[in-house]
Amino acid sequence: MRVDLLDYFRGVRPWGQLFRFLKRLPPHGWYQSAIAMDEEIGYARAMQDRPEKAGPISPLGYSLPVLLQLRQIDLLKELMRVTASVFSGKLPPPIRPEPRPQTAEERIRDELETLNVKNAVDLILGVASQG
Questions:
Q1: Shared domain check, 113 and 67
Q2: Residue 85, domain extent
Q3: Are 92 and 81 in contact (CB under 8 A)?
Q4: 21-51, pLDDT tens digit by residue?
């Protein structure tokens, strides 16, 4: 079945049907990825409480199989580190995990958390220096 997007603008099809269709698109596809990387939507979502049943939304190209492969690489690095420690007698420094992109919401939440910690430290140090 083919659907013409103009049918929604012409009033042939209801808008609710389009919104339900968009919600069912895969989280690693173009549409959901564009939503996840949008700064304004990310800021609005970061200001709200996280829903308990929120599914993972990944930036474009980072589907579940790709994320699982990145995790396998991290585990192999850790295995090599432990194996090296057996032969050298000391444990090498911890590995750095493979980089993973962040959505706009995650990045803004991290920035807000860092700002809250900085404000708390400034408040504590300000109180301590006055006392």
A1: no
A2: 63-100
A3: yes
A4: 888 887 777 888 888 888 898 888 888 887 6
CB 55 within 8 A of CB 23: no
Question: Does 128 lie in the same domain as 71?
Answer: no
Domain count, the chain: 2
Q: Which residues contact 103 (CB under 8 A, 6 or more apart)?
A: 36, 37, 42, 57, 58, 59
For 73-120, the pLDDT digits (tens) are 999 999 999 888 888 888 888 889 888 878 888 889 899 999 999 999
Amino acid letter, residue 82:
V
Which of 64, 53, 70 is CA-nearest to residue 29? 64
Its pTM stands at: 0.56
CB 42 within 8 A of CB 105: yes
